Amino acid sequence: MRVPFFPLARLHADRREALAGAMLEVLDSGWFVLGPQVERFERDFAAYCGLPHCIGVGNGSDALVLALRALGVGPGDRVATVANAAAYSSVAIHACGAEPLFVDIEPERLLMSLASVEQALAQRPKVLVATHLYGQLCAIEAIAERCRAAGVALIEDCAQAHGARRGGRLAGAFGDIGCYSFYPTKNLGALGDGGALVTADAALARRLRALRQYGWTDKYRIEHPGGCNSRLDELQAAVLNAELPLLDGRNARRRAIAARYLAEIAHPAIAPIARGGQDDVFHLFVLRCAHRDALRAHLTEHGVQTDIHYPLPDHRQPGLQDAGAMPALPETERACAEVLSLPCHPVLTDAEIAHVIAACNAFPT
Ligand SMILES: *Cc1c(COP(=O)(O)O)cnc(C)c1O
Predict the structure, then answer these.
(1) Ligand 1: does its nearest atom lie under 6 Å from the Cβ of 85?
(2) What are the chain's domains?
(3) Taking Cα atoms as reference points, which of 78, 161, 163, 64 lies closest to residue 122?
(4) Paired sense of beta strands 78-82 and 99-103, if any
(5) What's the pTM value of the predicted model, to 2 decimals?
(6) What distance in Å separates the CA atoms of residue 37 and residue 185, rounded to the nearest whole number?
(7) CA-to-CA distance for 220 and 230, rounded, in angstroms?
(8) Is the shortest distance between the CB of 160 and ligand 1 below 6 Å?
(9) Are 343 and 309 in contact (CB under 8 A)?
(10) Residue 159 CA to ligand 1 centre (angstroms)
């Protein structure tokens, strides 16, 4: 048996008519940028997140850049963030002319460690970006409280956490701004690039709305510096409107798969990092293994496709290094060498799940 990591064509196989219909509606409307589909998506996704404002943008990385700019980040500023989340936030921070201030992770769930957050806040960054990695909400209430006390703005990177909630609050509703990506493999995915920002703050929402479109407050009138062109287009918004009602059901399926992995993978060298619960939507099912590369080769031999999220921490990216000293991030370094992701997506079959579990348990160490 061959188990692909995430076969996107299979995800959409029973959605052909719904998605084609949504796209044809856009074609026939003759309205392709910032029209009724985007308006509807912004309204519905804001409501889904329990927030008053949603601003659709081109992709999740642009959402991070626009959030940083809206909070006043510019050259010379420092922004606290983790180094184990594929460098999306680091790239956005650099794009603003600012510098990342890296915080280490805790070893259980590989999320931003509170002790490290406190150390970083003592160095007075302009903003902190908290990433809900792999679909798990981080210690966001405590982080928000520390940020408020320190007078540091808080951005939540929710690109892996659509639908994750704690105490009735959704990812993105704890900080000043939540950033979402709708890249096709995300829990809510478009058929191309897409992104959004959510916020409770009306003034921030107005600024973000201007910044995504050249800094305009009105047609051809620029009042906000740092604007660009990053708009969610009507085709992707139409797809997202068709997909949003399926999000909770798909997340439930991801949780059920993860529950089986957690219950049935029993191997002394394999340690899943997940705990389960409503605050985890299992964007990825990640395990740690000291013999990661051997385990990966073994699974490949058994037809199980895996991936590594992520192999290289931000501070070791050749294109992101600045002149400063290499930060000490021991837990981040260790995690990058040990993490491995198993297939975990809404259209994984029971037979495939059983095959993955059997292959893991047969790992000869
Ligand atoms: C995917 C992702 C992004 C970037 O989103 P794009 O739409 O691909 O630009 C940012 N942060 C995290 C954590 C992501 O997983």
Answers:
(1) yes
(2) 8-245 (3.40.640.10), 246-361 (3.90.1150.10)
(3) 78
(4) parallel
(5) 0.98
(6) 21
(7) 16
(8) yes
(9) no
(10) 5
Task: Determine the distance from the C-alpha atom of residue 232 to the mean position of all C-alpha atoms in its chain, rounded to a whole number.
Answer: 17
pLDDT confidence band for 323 (50 / 70 / 90) = low
With a CB cutoff of 8 Å and minimum separation 6, the contacts of 197 are 54, 55, 57, 63, 66, 67, 177, 178, 179, 180, 208
**Ligand 1 close to Cβ of residue 59 (< 6 A):** yes
What is the bridge-based pairing of β-strands 127-131 and 78-82? parallel
Distance 28 CA to ligand 1 centre (A): 31
Sign of CA dihedral 299, 305, 309, 315: positive
C-alpha 195 to ligand 1 mean position (Å)? 9
Which residue's C-alpha comes closest to atom 6 of ligand 1?
60
> Which atom, in ligand 1's list, is nearest to the CA of 62?
9
Q: Calculate mean pLDDT across residues 116-144.
A: 97
Q: Quote the ligand 1 centre to 60 CA distance (angstroms).
A: 5
The reported pLDDT for the residue numbered 326 is 80
Give the pair of three-digit tokens for residue 328.
């000490």
Query: Identity (one letter) of the amino acid at 312?
Result: L
